[in-house]
Amino acid sequence: MYSRVGVQSLSCAFSYVWKQQRQVLNNVSARSLQSSSNASLKEILEQKIGEMREEVAQVRHAVGNQVLGTCTVDQAYGGMRSVKAMTYETSLLDPNEGIRFRGYSIPECQKLLPGIKQGGEPLPESLLFLLLTGEIPSVQQVTALREELSSRAQLPDRVKKTLNSVSPSLHPMAQFSIGILAMQSDSVFAREYARGAPKNKWWEYCLEDSLTLIARLPQVAAIVYRNTYYQGKQLEADLKLDMSARLTKMMGFQNPEFDELMRLYLTIHADHEGGNVSAHSVRLVGSALSDPFLSFSAGMNGLAGPLHGLANQNVLTWLLQVKEKLGGQAPTKENLTKICWDTLNSGNVIPGFGHAVLRRTDPRYMCQREFALKHLPNDEIFQLVSLLYEVVPKVLSEQGKVSNPWPNVDAHSGTLLRYYGVKEMTFYTVLFGVSRALGTLSSLVWDRALGLPIERPKSVTTRWIKENLVHKAASEAK
Ligand SMILES: CC(C)(COP(=O)(O)OP(=O)(O)OC[C@H]1O[C@@H](n2cnc3c(N)ncnc32)[C@H](O)[C@@H]1OP(=O)(O)O)[C@@H](O)C(=O)NCCC(=O)NCCS
Fold first, then answer.
1. Interior/surface letters 107-116, b for 16+ CB within 10 angstroms, e for the rest
2. Looking at ligand 1, which residue's alpha carbon is closest to its atom 7?
3. 140 or 331: which carries more pLDDT confidence?
4. Which of 344, 394, 401, 410 to mutate to test the pocket of ligand 1 (most atoms within 8 A of CB)?
5. Alpha-carbon distances, residue 174 vs 204, 309, 423, 424 (angstroms)
6. Tell me: the pLDDT tens digits for 44-53?
7. What is the pLDDT of residues 155-203, one digit of tens each?
8. So what's the pLDDT on residue 51?
9. Would the keyword Transferase be found if you checked this record's keyword annotation (predicted)?
10. What is the per-residue pLDDT for 141?
């Protein structure tokens, strides 16, 4: 099963991640570490997973009874915001600095991760290697992973048939999720679990399914796109291409600059630590030992919500409404301020602004802005987005409700996609989903490697709170 070179080198590196992470913690450059081993994959994995379990056991033994986070009554009613109650290894979100993938910021990833050309955007395959292993891959390692993914990328006919039988009037995210579920019968994890596979092997089967899913998702997405907007006229997958170029070609685009944008897009949307709706859904459903197809589909159903991934669709809809409201007038700070207040006063949120964790401008917004400044500085919608960057935070701050008035990733992505010809806004979240597979499935592999148990936090009723906290507080006050 793991005889192919891509998985071999990936898995060897994967098994070294703990050693690397320890050294990162000790301020040793992660880049100085190289994954190399002559031992067989099985020997390395048996050894390293044993080591990892031991390390977690040591951590738990040392600090297992220390409080990691607390939960107030307000937090319990308030979406558990800021409650530290889970571990998640592939990325960490700092409220001010933004996301770091395995310790690397987005600008660092852009600098260090191999791309298709020198100085170009990183390949999402490079990021996948980093997320799984914690290591910046060499060009050879990325090439091997690309070949591995290509060898798995062809979608079975029965899955195409399922996708083709779905009404194109169904939202593309619902179609995407159906396509993912239609692959479930290929799950190695489900098959081996049913055969009684031992717990220490589960991660291998999870990796197997995750790579298959990641490899096939561009074609699932492209079929949804062509079925929904191009009367089902599908295009063949060119398996020689990297996943970004493969995706854009199957969607019907032939523009190397758009391929570069797609590489950036698929890289920056991949992961945003563990508590967001899509990542947490994948983790939660996977914790019941539902296989990666079932788990990832659940994550996509969460990504489809307007407060999460669907916001990128809503941003462009709103931008076009703003343009319409301007009625041919040039946008100015004054007329945009009025339109923003109109949006708020009509009871709507301004899409693309605010965040549950971030408290500054999202670095994923900034790198897209830099891309736009380089490639489409004169685009009318980009110029509108730029001006709104100066206007919206002031309006939201003045309104005084939001915790974070700054733009998030979704404030920019639609503008770029539209510029390169993807004008169908309802499709945008599907692209987000293709990317989100890289992070959430890498994390799922680690969940099984670490033997994380089924998730089951305790809930209480309002009556319980009254009986146990309100009455207690009242009697203490007497
Ligand atoms: C992302 C988001 C869901 C975070 O929600 P949150 O953590 O509850 O945010 P806050 O704590 O800042 O919310 C406090 C209040 O400000 C409001 N608020 C937050 N962002 C807002 C925005 N962009 N426009 C208007 N009001 C906003 C909230 O709706 C909430 O109002 P309420 O108390 O009347 O319910 C929220 O900022 C939002 O709806 N943004 C727009 C949608 C979006 O861009 N989503 C993509 C996120 S990556």
1. eebbeebbbb
2. 356
3. 331
4. 401
5. 29, 13, 19, 16
6. 455 667 777 8
7. 999 999 999 999 999 999 999 999 999 999 999 999 999 999 999 899 9
8. 79
9. yes
10. 86
What kind and span of H or E run contains 449?
Answer: helix 428-449
Q: Whose CA is nearest to atom 20 of ligand 1?
A: 354
Query: What's the length of the chain?
Result: 478
Ligand 1: distance of its center to the CA of 405 in Å?
Answer: 9
Count of structural domains, the chain: 1
Residues of the chain with pLDDT > 70, as a percent, come to 90
> 225 in ligand 1 pocket by Cβ < 6 Å?
no
Residue 475: predicted pLDDT: 85
428 Cα: distance to centroid of ligand 1 (angstroms): 20
Do the domain assignments include residue 426? no
Q: Is 192's C-beta closer than 6 angstroms to any atom of ligand 1?
A: no
Q: What is the pTM of this model?
A: 0.90
Residue range of the domain that includes 326: 311-419
Residue 30 has pLDDT above 70, yes or no: no
Task: Identify whether 440 is part of a domain.
Answer: no
CATH number at residue 363: 1.10.230.10
149 lies in a domain? no
Catalytic residues: 308, 355, 410
Has residue 152 been placed in a domain? no
Q: How far is the CA of 341 from the centre of ligand 1 (A)?
A: 15
Which amino acid, residue 363? P
